[in-house]
Write a structure and sequence with these properties.
The chain has about 170 residues and is mainly alpha-helical. It is about 75% helix and about 0% strand.
């Protein structure tokens, strides 16, 4: 948006100088006021959202989305529940307290699973491989989070539940 406003400002300024007008137009004054204001930055420490707590909730939702026993072929309800949890995880990843490269790796793994769920024809093997890759990236995320031991244990248990489900689907 700022780029758009900047170009408008430049356009008005060029037209004014071309016409040799000494008075500023109202639009130009407004744009100058807009550009002279300082932007306030949000302090992430004051945000009401608990990123680790929400990760725990998302992982619980993800674990609950997978049926016990046989996964393939998944029902449409199962796919919808998995995608919903993955979308929540994708949103969480944008503000996660982890490195940018790990955020991108997590987002890529999430999108790989979503793509496999949407693939036509559906491949159980490739979907489970994408899910296992996601679980590995989530383990890296857990290692990167600066959290207490009890929170680590809770998330680790959820990751182990996912791993156990995926291993059961292969067997």
């Amino acid at each position: 948006m700022y780029l758009y406003v900047f170009f408008i400002y430049k356009y008005i300024h060029m037209q004014r100088s071309e016409l040799h007008l000494d008075k500023k137009s109202k639009k130009e004054e407004l744009l100058q006021q807009l550009f002279t204001r300082k932007m306030e930055t949000a302090d992430a420490t004051n945000l009401p959202v608990n990123p680790v707590g929400s990760l725990t909730d998302i992982l619980k939702k993800l674990v609950a989305a997978f049926p016990p026993g046989c996964f393939c072929p998944p029902s449409q309800q199962t796919i919808t529940q998995i995608k919903s949890a993955l979308n929540d995880l994708l949103i969480w990843s944008t503000s996660a307290p982890i490195s940018i490269s790990l955020k991108l790796e997590l987002q890529n793994a999430i999108n790989a699973v979503k793509n496999q769920l949407d693939a036509n024809p559906f491949s159980c093997c490739e979907t489970i491989q994408a899910l296992e890759s996601l679980e590995i990236v989530l383990s890296k995320v857990l290692g990167a989070l600066q959290i207490g031991t009890s929170q680590q244990v809770t998330i680790l248990i959820l990751l182990q539940q996912l791993q156990s489900l995926f291993a059961g689907y292969i067997a």
